[in-house]
Amino acid sequence: MQSNGYQTGFGNEFATEALPGTLPVGRNSPQHVAHDLYAEQLTGTAFTAPRYANRRSWLYRIRPAAVHGRFEPFEQPRFHNDFGTGPVTPEKLRWSPLPMPEQPADFIEGLFTVGGNGGPAAASGVGIHVYAANRDMHERFFCNADGEFLIVPQQGRLHIETELGVLDVEPQEIAVIPRGIRYRVTLPDGQALGYVCENFGALLRLPDLGPIGSNCLANPRDFHYPNAAYEDVDGQFELLTKFQGGLWRSDIGHSPLDVVAWHGNYAPYKYDLRRFNVLGSISFDHPDPSIFLVLHSPSDTPGTSNVDFAIFPPRILAMQDTFRPAWFHRNVASEFMGLVHGIYDAKAEGFLPGGCSLHNCMTGHGPDAATFEKASAVDTSKPDYVKDTMAIMFETRAVIRPVAQALDASHRQMDYPNVWMGLRRRFTPGA
Which of 184, 320, 323, 404 is deepest in the core (most CB within 10 A)? Predict the structure, then answer.
């Protein structure tokens, strides 16, 4: 499948057809659909959700989604939602990039769970994963019935063919695949590394802007949704489905990417992080890091997200008489960070592109010793142009429980806590 282009606007009602005359006029499920297709509704929210929050799409396809074989368990032990119930270390954790697999591994086989909280049964929380893949998904399709997949490529492009069309995503872009949509991933560059946030809670949405007004942060027009594109192919294929934390497989004798037309507002989308319109202080001190919020999944507590997706892109720091890197802090929220590109300005070394860190609830963290010394001596009468960087953060209201394979991984940086040990006593009474 090749891309048929994109439609723009976050959460808009779209109508797109790969064959002219496919979409019915004035009704969703006529007795006879054009081209002898089947009408099928894909619903991502409760039927009775308020109109502004309701997400659903009508699909006009060659075969209904119900046409496939029986399910049986499928093993991929590195990708799961078993976050455990025992003690959780409050230690600051950091990992180097996930090594590329020694054997061929596609996008699903290359997923590696770092941690998470909640789960699909509770309809809240997140799973946090990284991936390292070196082959295309061949005769295989994937569907996640548990939650949305927010995919952040770090190295290597992804060609994502979905039921509703094609997303071509490169590093410094993201893709969001809603719950229940079937797709496959191929690798134009032969291999790929990146991050995945699996959202079990309310659908990701743009944050309200409040006093900011009607513009800035991530603007709706910069979100791209695929036009309809389909394939009519028979063969011996495999459908993998993630359901209640487990993987299942079934035989399917045709490509499920057979939607000829669709209309609605429940669909995969992509966004270029380089289009984020950054805000900041032009006098003194820092605004809170919520000004870097791209998307969030709200919770049942007003003002508190199930998960926030924030970025730290190129920007200008102009605050005077201010310590400009992120200050030392302890948060009620828990932070998982990754580096997509360049150097993160609040770390001197060790935080590598493709690597990641986890600072859980109320664990003290902030600039390392080398960064503190450098920032303390900078001339704040001049602006600091932070260039050539892109860091990401998945922030959650619940503790992110690291799983055993991540704690025991050979690419975990066991000496990470030492980066703060050089912060010497500076107290000078009477100075």
Answer: 184
